[in-house]
């Protein structure tokens, strides 16, 4: 059995990042054409576009600040001008910052997380969901985090942004489900990426001992979950927050 995304087009925000580029490759290997979003790393975006061509799908590069409604609308117009429509949106981009305690965290960091988690999700929905409604088909996939359930010391800005994002996705799932659109979230744990492989930092005994599967997950395992939710095999799943972290957090009933 194969996840078949042929004749579908997926937009991946933050596609040049450690997780984003593996998501883009995986969706492409399932047959989807890819819109590669980036904000600053044009070189990596072009490398990824060449990879997509080698895989045998089409790829379009778009640049935008995901915290700007104006720029995301311009991105939508750029995509439309190429005659493309978006079937799958993967909201993966997020602003990075230095974590510290609430008493020491800069107020600007809370704003940046709200903008890149909550408002990015709102802007993407406003930009792409109306056309999905017209076609009676769509997949909205948000990349959340296990931190949204952990609430550990030092995580406050990130957790606040991602918990706000969770609210947007759950409400959106109820608002657009009647149109054949699914809206789901994936919550990675501390994930092994190419950066870890290059730096030989794949393992952390202190973290791994808390995980029931006793290891860190990989970027490919996160991308596999994205591809599944994007496919028709997940056609009756919506409103879900799915941890992909070896059981490190477990939503309760």
TrEMBL record:
EC number: 1.1.1.100
The keyword Iron-sulfur appears for this protein: no
Key words, A-Z: Oxidoreductase
InterPro entries: NAD(P)-bd_dom_sf, SDR_fam
Cited SUPFAM superfamilies: NAD(P)-binding Rossmann-fold domains (SSF51735)
Gene3D superfamilies associated with the record: NAD(P)-binding Rossmann-like Domain
Keyword Oxidoreductase: yes
Pfam families xrefs: adh_short_C2
Protein name per the record: 3-oxoacyl-[acyl-carrier protein] reductase
Species, as recorded: Paenibacillus harenae
């Amino acid at each position: 059995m194969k996840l078949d995304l042929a004749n579908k087009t997926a937009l991946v925000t933050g596609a040049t990042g450690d997780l984003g580029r593996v998501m883009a490759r995986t969706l492409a290997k399932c047959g989807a054409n890819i819109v590669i979003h980036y904000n600053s790393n044009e070189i990596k975006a072009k490398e990824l576009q060449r990879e997509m061509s080698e895989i045998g799908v089409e790829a379009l590069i778009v640049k935008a600040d995901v915290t700007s409604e104006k720029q995301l609308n311009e991105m939508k117009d750029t995509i439309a001008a190429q005659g493309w429509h978006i079937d799958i949106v993967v909201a993966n981009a997020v602003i990075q910052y230095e974590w510290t305690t609430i008493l020491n965290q800069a107020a600007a960091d809370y704003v940046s997380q709200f903008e890149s988690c909550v408002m990015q999700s709102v802007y993407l929905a406003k930009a792409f969901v109306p056309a999905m409604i017209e076609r009676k088909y769509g997949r909205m996939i948000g990349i959340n985090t296990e931190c949204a359930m952990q609430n550990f010391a030092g995580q406050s800005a990130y957790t606040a942004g991602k918990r706000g994002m969770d609210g947007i996705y759950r409400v959106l799932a109820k608002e657009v489900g009647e149109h054949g659109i699914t809206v789901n979230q994936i919550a990675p744990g501390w994930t092994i990426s190419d950066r870890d492989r290059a730096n030989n930092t794949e393992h952390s005994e202190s973290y791994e001992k808390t995980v029931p599967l006793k290891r860190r997950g990989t970027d490919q395992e996160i991308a596999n979950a994205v591809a599944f939710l994007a496919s028709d095999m997940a056609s009756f799943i919506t409103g879900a927050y799915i941890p992909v972290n070896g059981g490190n957090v477990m939503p309760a009933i």
